[in-house]
Design brief:
Catalyzes the condensation of the acetyl group of acetyl-CoA with 3-methyl-2-oxobutanoate (2-ketoisovalerate) to form 3-carboxy-3-hydroxy-4-methylpentanoate (2-isopropylmalate). This protein is 40% helix and 21% strand. It contains 17 helices and 17 strands. The longest helix is centred in the last third of the chain and has 17 residues. Bound molecules: 3-methyl-2-oxobutanoic acid and zinc ion. 3-methyl-2-oxobutanoic acid binds next to strand 6.
């Protein structure tokens, strides 16, 4: 019989930087990874799964850097049951305040037969060998039987018992393909706690995917059945339909404390900020109706609802927007707002920005204020995220010239500047202005690009709103996303397209560009 973790605290493991980055088209840069990890620490997660160090030098280096920077949060790295993977996690996390490892191997019949070509006995042996090996380096070893929910329950119990006997103290149960449903998933946790023999305290952890839209419900069922840890990502990003949306889990625990009687250490007020940051860096817009962090999550449209909320917000609001950091009473800035008002606004919105960067941002703010009557908090967030991005971007759209004729081909001239100040220019025609711009950019990068998705949204309401363009493209066999924000739709479209090219890792061949 297991002694389960006694506390009423539910641990939160964020895997945005590992499982979340497996979203098609999403690839975080080194700087973005550091900023995400710092924001996750501010949000209050217990563990950050920072990457899969053996998978690439980039992943190794960012796990290493994150391990050196974070002080309050455990940093974990993923490893297959392969010794060099475990060595890589050790090397990458050895300077962390709280280093952790997550070792996994698939256990379901389909994975054993089709993928690993291993018998059940061989899998048990590999679990024993590699968890034992990982324990040489780490006090706390997490083990996951991949595709656990399609593994025969009695064999799953054997796998977990083997891992526990070899020294694992965190057992994670991945619903790898998003196949299970709440009562079935909850039952796995109950059976494990009843069957596993140990006198050590074991943390049982839930890791769900959202293929049937049940990831959060399954995670909550795991909590009802004794899980002490939930794994997931911000905004639920991840492969296919994504992972458990952690913001939904922590708010579920908070709002229905009466039922779950468990708490997380998450600072709920940092939730919106965290979601916005991931959305921006991933290049994935949060759907307006998304629970907790969507733009409409706290809007009331119907007259009956509005009337009720005015009389008492609790008639239709089970939580306040302020609880998750959405400011409802924002004081917009305008053309006449000065440096001090701007500085105060940045501070109120929680930004800690150096005076030099503030000066650059203030100039950009003034240029927006010339075109837009009222600058809302959403404009400021967009400005900061956009500018941060542009400052670090390898390529920027320097100039854009578009000639529009009705009933004819459009033409565009694009000038791109790289980090060293070289400029590259080309022109093209197209059936529409954006096609013409994109053809010109393709000529500059000397690439043929497949545009997989293009969408445009207004940052705020009103005809003077800034445009936010998201693109998802495939270039040089790599998928990438890009975001562009500008008052002008064509410039926003060009910025998004160039950013996606840079994120896909394509470079401008200097021979082709016009360098000055
Ligand atoms: O979903 C999954 O099975 C995983 C494992 C690596 C734990 O992410
Ligand atoms: Zn996963």
């Amino acid at each position: 019989m297991t002694i389960s973790a006694s506390t009423d605290h539910i641990q939160i493991l964020d895997t945005t930087l590992r499982d979340g980055e497996q979203t098609p088209g999403v690839s975080f840069s080194f700087d973005e990874r550091i900023k995400i990890a710092q924001q996750l620490e501010r949000w209050g997660v217990d563990v950050i799964e920072a990457g899969f160090p053996a998978s690439s030098p980039g992943s190794f280096e960012s796990v290493k850097a994150i391990s050196q920077i974070l002080t309050q949060t455990a940093v974990s790295g993923l490893a297959r049951c392969v010794k060099k993977d475990i060595d890589a996690v050790y090397e990458a996390t050895k300077h962390a305040a709280m280093p952790r490892i997550h070792v996994f191997v698939a256990t379901s019949p389909i994975h054993l037969e089709a993928k690993l070509k291993l018998t059940q006995e061989e899998v048990l042996a590999t679990i024993h060998e590699h968890v034992t090996y990982a324990r040489n380096y780490f006090d706390i070893v997490q083990f996951s039987p991949e595709d656990a929910t399609r593994t025969e329950l009695d064999f799953l119990v054997k796998c977990v018992q083997t891992a526990v006997d070899a020294g694992a103290s965190v057992i994670n149960i991945p619903d790898t393909v998003g196949f299970t449903y709440p009562s079935e998933y909850g039952n796995i946790f109950r059976v494990l706690q009843e069957s596993i023999n140990t006198d050590r305290e074991i943390v049982y952890s839930a890791h769900c995917h959202d293929d049937l839209g049940l990831a959060v419900a399954n995670s909550m069922a795991a909590i009802e059945n004794g899980a002490n840890r939930i794994e997931g990502t911000i905004n639920g990003i991840g492969e296919r339909a994504g992972n458990t949306a952690l913001e939904e889990v922590v708010l579920g625990l908070h709002v229905r404390q009466d039922h779950y009687k468990r708490t997380s250490r998450i600072k709920l007020k940092e939730t919106k900020q965290t979601s916005d940051l991931i959305s921006r860096y991933a290049g994935l817009r949060v759907p307006k109706n998304k629970a907790i962090v969507g733009q409409n999550a706290f809007s009331h449209e119907s007259g009956i609802h509005q009337d009720g909320v005015l009389k008492n917000p609790e008639t239709y609001e089970i939580m306040t927007p302020q609880l998750v950091g959405v400011k409802s009473t924002e004081l917009p800035l305008g053309k006449l707002s000065g440096k001090h008002a701007f500085k105060d606004k940045l501070k109120n919105l929680g930004y800690d920005i150096s005076p030099d960067e503030q000066a650059i941002l203030f100039k950009q703010f003034k240029s927006i204020a010339d075109k837009k009557k009222s600058i809302t908090d959403r404009d400021i967030h967009a400005l900061i995220l956009g500018s941060e991005h542009e400052l670090n971007a390898p390529y920027q759209v320097e100039q854009l010239q578009v000639q529009f004729v009705s009933n004819g081909l459009q033409s565009a001239v694009v000038l791109i500047k790289d980090k060293d100040g070289h400029t590259y220019k080309d022109s093209s025609i197209g059936s529409g202005s954006i096609v013409a711009i994109y053809n010109a950019v393709d000529r500059i990068f000397n690439q043929t690009t497949e545009l997989l998705d293009y969408s445009i949204d207004a940052v705020t309401e009103g005809t003077d709103s800034q445009a936010e363009v998201h693109v998802h493209l495939k270039v040089n066999h790599t998928e990438a996303t890009g975001v562009g924000i500008d008052h002008d739709i064509l410039l926003a479209s060009a910025k998004a397209y160039v950013e996606a090219h840079a994120k896909a890792g394509v470079e401008i061949n200097e021979q082709k560009g016009v360098s000055s």
